[in-house]
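FIELD: query
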Amino acid sequence: MQMTFLRPWAPQILSLIRIVTAAAFLTHGLIKLVGWPAPFPYPMNGLLYVAAIMEIVGGVLLIVGLLSRPVAFLLSGQMAAAYFMAHASQGFFPALNMGEPAMLFCFIFLYIAAAGPGPWSLDALRNAD
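FIELD: result
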């Protein structure tokens, strides 16, 4: 038995995945840069400031779906680097090294870079997808 009832909604679900993932990603940058919705628990350094700016700017751009493919590709790379710099040395399994969010963001953004932003985006409105 095939589950095909969602197939007609795949483009809209892609847009929802982009929006929800970007909104969650945006909060990581806001925590680092402005301490909202919670204070960042580690000391900030130059690399973390760059990451915070990428997370805020990239998160906003992906929420609205503007320049989605290149932004998603850059953020995918950022999350791959974050995983290997901060988590992989803590053990192999992402569930144990606290790297699941970085790994998931990396691959979701990589998929968005490949698949595009979906129909609910500024890119789709301006036929730039």
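FIELD: remark
The mean pLDDT is 96.
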